[in-house]
């Protein structure tokens, strides 16, 4: 009896394990399914038909109606398009599919002379769209060119759906390359031609990426009422709405939408979205300072991502590590980032370079090493931090990542300073200065390339706009000509053709003039911005060299404390200058900090030559007024170097800031030096030959800024005394 019972127990276990295996194999193993979508009756393949699964896979049929998609046994295929009745198909085998559908498009009689010609045009159109999608990530210029050619194929017989597909594809190209304003414009054009869920979701996502959260919420909120939506699209809708509410600062609403999306993703086994939504819920809670809830969801996302590809696992580890950093849990942060480094080794170098990123921050070995070092520094573990900083610099050098190399070199110099190794600190700081110089040159080159790229994009966008106008006008002319043929005589028809041709030509001329004007305007703006950035990047070289010589002088005198203090102030000034280098205007409070630092440094060098005072009217809101960065420094430098330095006794430098009226600020720089005329007389012949670039650059900056912002800055230079001694510089800065 016992043997019989044992036999039944074993049989039950075997059957149970077999059943479990069957369930796992149904849901866990996916395969590539091939198929074709054809029209009933004609048996012709239908292009541009959307094929999706409840697990989130999505594709479009090609010009022959063929498609390939990853599915699992038992999953449901949804075949849909505005041209056909939606079809749902349950996958029961791995055999190729042939799906016949009913079309719901009425024939447009008379729009084409030859059906074979129309078919060839349609085939070419979808070929160009396929090519555009192929080059979407690797070559933006080629991709846009193929879209342009696809639009050229849309003649008089084109339908709105094809036009929408072309503009939607163009929007995806712009979106991938972070040209969000152009992407938004293209998606809007696509929706005007044909309303689709896919394009609406893409537009909503791009609004979020462009930080237009209110527009995203306004577009997507009504879509909650749509019933015919595949699970993956429903998840995307809730995810994007959650992103929008995070951007609007409404954490509770964001979490509610994320959780609704998570329920659908769990139910339909959409694994990637399950990870993403757990991570986003955690991020939302973290922003709301609800750290306990955030930690729980981050643990979920970490566990789920561990079974995914190394790329996804690294992304999640870095996101959670950033969370630990904000919580000051440096030990856990370091442990997680070290695991990220191990995972990175499993990923091909090309895939890492191709765009492994997390939001706006790229993921690379040098960045992770730099963050690990910072975590050790936060714990005052300088010896542990040094190897990671050195490794970060090494990796950054190999990948030519100057930004990380700059930050890591600066941080290494600071670590050596904290350790008291001032020799290495100075050596490393000199390396940092060299990297900064290289970065300046690189940024100027990048600015030039960006300007060229923007001009090319503008030209291509103009070509697309022109094609659309041409297509619409051609279609209008054709329709009018067809009507004229039925109603009037041949002579009247010819007259009308002439009239419409003239109108068409005038429109084209007007369009060309408009685009020429806009191009010139954009070119002028781009040139001004480039010139501003170039001028801002030029800090007075002799100040830097003299500052470093002062450090050397302190060191030679064994005055390490003064050298350390001077180097620290100089480093702070340089860092602030670099941080503000990309801004046209900064708050007056920041500019005052820079002036205080600079004047302090110069006073420490010439303490026997002058004293100084900076006075600010108490009624001035120094955060409300905006001022060009480093605008006042060259004039203060002139006062010290060419006026006060040559006095036999001690001089005085006065910097005063007061409010002229509600919309204007008055800044005066006054010195009792020897005066401009006497200073010019003291110059050597060599000095007279060498023009100082400082005053010339600041004059150019003021001219460009006044051109761009309508005369916001005015400067007057005059002698302080009637005998020509002393100098007064008076600025008037208008509020924006």
Q: Based on CA inertia axes, which overall geometry fits?
A: globular
Regions with little confidence, pLDDT below 50 for 5+ residues = 1-28, 105-114, 473-478
The secondary-structure class comes to alpha+beta
What fraction of the residues are assigned to beta strands by DSSP?
5-15%
> How many structural domains in the coordinates?
6
Amino-to-carboxy terminus distance = 96 Å
CATH topology of the largest domain: Heat Shock Protein 90
Largest sheet: 5 strands, mixed
- Mean pLDDT across all amino acids: 76
In angstroms, what is the radius of gyration? 34 Å
CATH homologous superfamily grouping of the largest domain: Histidine kinase-like ATPase, C-terminal domain
Which CATH architecture of the largest domain would you pick?
A: 2-Layer Sandwich
Q: Regarding CATH, which class of the largest domain?
A: Alpha Beta
**Quantity of strands, as a count:** 16
Number of helices: 26
Q: How much helix is in the residues?
A: 55-70%
* Side-by-side strand order of the widest sheet: 11-13-14-16-15
């Amino acid at each position: 009896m016992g043997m019989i019972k044992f036999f039944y127990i074993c049989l039950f276990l075997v059957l149970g394990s077999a059943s479990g295996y069957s369930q796992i194999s149904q849901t866990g193993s996916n395969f590539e399914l091939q198929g074709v979508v054809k029209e009933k009756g004609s048996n012709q393949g239908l292009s541009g038909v959307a094929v999706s699964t409840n697990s989130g896979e999505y594709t479009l049929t090609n010009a022959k109606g063929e498609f390939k998609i990853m599915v699992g046994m038992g999953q449901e295929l949804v075949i849909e398009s505005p041209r056909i009745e939606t079809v749902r198909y349950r996958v029961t085998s791995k055999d190729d599919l042939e799906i016949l559908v009913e079309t719901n498009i009425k024939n447009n009689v008379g729009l084409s002379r030859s059906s074979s010609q129309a078919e060839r045009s349609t085939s070419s159109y979808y070929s160009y769209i396929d090519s555009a999608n192929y080059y979407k990530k690797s070559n933006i210029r080629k991709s846009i060119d193929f879209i342009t050619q696809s639009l050229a194929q849309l003649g008089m017989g084109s339908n709105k759906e094809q036009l929408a597909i072309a503009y939607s594809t163009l929007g995806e190209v712009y979106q991938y390359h972070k040209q969000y304003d152009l992407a938004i414009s293209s998606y809007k054009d696509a929706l005007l031609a044909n309303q689709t869920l896919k394009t609406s979701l893409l537009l909503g996502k791009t609004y979020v990426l462009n930080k237009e959260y209110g527009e995203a919420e306004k577009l997507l909120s009504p879509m909650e009422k749509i019933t015919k939506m595949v699970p993956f699209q429903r998840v995307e809708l809730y995810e994007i709405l959650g992103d929008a509410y995070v951007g609007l600062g409404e954490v509770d609403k964001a979490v509610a939408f994320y959780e609704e999306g998570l329920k659908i993703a769990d139910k339909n086994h959409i694994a990637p979205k399950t990870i993403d939504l757990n991570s986003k819920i955690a991020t939302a809670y973290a922003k709301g300072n609800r750290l306990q809830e955030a930690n729980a969801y981050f643990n979920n996302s970490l566990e789920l991502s561990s079974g995914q590809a190394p790329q996804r696992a690294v992304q999640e580890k870095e996101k959670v590590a950033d969370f630990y950093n904000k919580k000051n849990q440096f030990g856990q942060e370091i442990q997680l980032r070290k695991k990220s480094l191990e995972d990175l080794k499993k990923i091909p170098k090309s895939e890492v370079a191709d765009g492994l990123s997390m939001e706006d921050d790229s993921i690379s070995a040098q960045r992770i090493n730099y963050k690990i070092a910072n975590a050790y520094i936060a714990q005052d573990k300088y010896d542990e931090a040094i190897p990671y900083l050195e490794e970060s610099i090494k990796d950054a050098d190999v990948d030519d990542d100057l930004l990380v190399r700059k930050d890591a070199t600066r941080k290494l110099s600071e670590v050596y300073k904290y350790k008291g190794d001032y020799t290495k600190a100075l050596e490393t700081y000199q390396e940092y200065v060299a990297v900064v110089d290289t970065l300046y040159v690189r940024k100027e080159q990048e600015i030039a390339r960006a300007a060229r790229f923007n001009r090319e994009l503008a030209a291509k966008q103009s070509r697309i706009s022109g094609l659309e106008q041409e297509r619409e006008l051609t279609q209008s002319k054709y329709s009018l000509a067809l009507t004229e043929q039925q109603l009037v005589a041949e002579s009247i028809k010819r007259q009308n053709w002439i009239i419409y041709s003239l109108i068409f030509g005038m429109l084209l001329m007007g369009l060309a003039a408009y685009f020429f004007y806009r191009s010139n305007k954009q070119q002028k703006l781009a040139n001004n911005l480039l010139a501003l950035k170039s001028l801002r990047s030029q800090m007075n070289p002799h100040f830097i060299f003299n500052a470093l010589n002062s450090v050397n002088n302190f060191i030679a005198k064994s005055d390490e404390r003064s050298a350390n203090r001077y180097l620290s102030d100089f480093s702070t000034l340089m860092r602030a200058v670099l941080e503000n280098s990309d801004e046209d205007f900064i708050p007056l409070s920041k500019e005052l900090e820079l002036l205080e630092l600079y004047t302090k440094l110069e006073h420490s060098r010439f303490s026997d030559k002058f004293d100084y005072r900076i006075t600010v009217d108490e009624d001035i809101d120094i955060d409300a007024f905006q001022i060009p960065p480093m605008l006042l420094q060259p004039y203060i430098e002139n006062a010290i170097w060419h006026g006060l330095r040559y006095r036999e006794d001690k001089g005085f430098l006065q910097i005063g800031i007061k409010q002229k009226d509600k919309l204007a600020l008055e800044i005066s720089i006054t010195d009792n030096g020897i005066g401009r005329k006497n200073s010019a007389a003291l110059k050597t012949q060599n000095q007279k030959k060498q023009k100082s670039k400082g005053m010339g650059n600041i004059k150019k900056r003021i001219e460009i800024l006044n051109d761009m912002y309508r005369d916001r800055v005015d400067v007057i230079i005059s002698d302080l005394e009637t005998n020509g001694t002393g100098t007064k510089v008076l600025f008037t800065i208008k509020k924006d």
